[in-house]
Amino acid sequence: MKQIILFLFLAATSAFAYSDPRVIAIEGSGSFEYPAEMIRIDFSVYNQSDRDIKEAKSKVERTSSEIVRSLIDIGINEKDIFSPSFTVDLDDQYDSEDCPKGYVPVVGRDMEVLLRDIKLYRKVIDTLVENGATSIGRVQSEVEDLKKYERSAMLAAIEDAKKQAAFLVENLGGKLGKVHSIREKRVRNRSDIEAIVVTGMRASPRDEIPYNFQPEPVEVSASIYVEFEIE
Q: Half-sphere exposure of 76 toward its Cβ, with a 13 Å CA cutoff?
């Protein structure tokens, strides 16, 4: 009987010693906008007419090479021009009655250029359009050291969590203790700029473009979910 009572006493003591402390859960957030330091532009050169694969490939390569030379001429470093993929495929063509009528080879090169001098943006767009780029896709503002700005946003999120927790606990008559746990943390950045339609720019004289480009700032935000002990 004494052994049973001793066991129950030890179990109760153990449960009390390891019970969870009182905690308050808070999500802190921080967000900053930074001026664009660089701009990355994705563009493509694709065959749109030739039905012979060899001719289509040759035309795409000639156009791509001419674009690269022209970009270098306006001050872009060759190391900042990339071609991550090259496509060769067949696109079946159909008539009005949905019957096969042959194919047009899908041959193209996807490319990107990094502008370290954002003042060159207008010249780069004109150069791409005038030298045969078939599409311009993502235009993205960037900063040189994104990790530095991400750390600043996370520090702001941590400080925000501390202030929120202290405000609630202290105004309810308690005292904020140490961190109990960190459940989740997230860092995000947004810097995409609206895509440019090449065909529309080709249809209008250069002097009729209604605005001067201003790069969108890079927005960096962070959030953290923290549990604090209440003393």
A: 29
Per-residue pLDDT tens over the stretch 139-168: 888 998 989 999 999 999 999 999 999 999
Sequence-separated (6 or more) residues with CB below 8 Å from residue 27: 161, 223, 224, 225, 226
Residue 223 backbone dihedrals phi, psi, to 5 degrees: -140, 150
Q: List pLDDT tens digits, range 42-86.
A: 999 988 777 788 888 889 999 999 999 999 999 999 999 998 888
Residue 144: partners with Cβ closer than 8 Å, 6 or more residues away: 37, 38
Query: H or E stretch including 56?
Result: helix 53-73
H helix or E strand, kind and range, residue 26: strand 23-34
Using the Cα atoms of residue 34, residue 40, residue 41 and residue 42 in order, give the sign of their dihedral.
Answer: negative
Q: Are 30 and 219 in contact (CB under 8 A)?
A: no
pTM of the model: 0.67
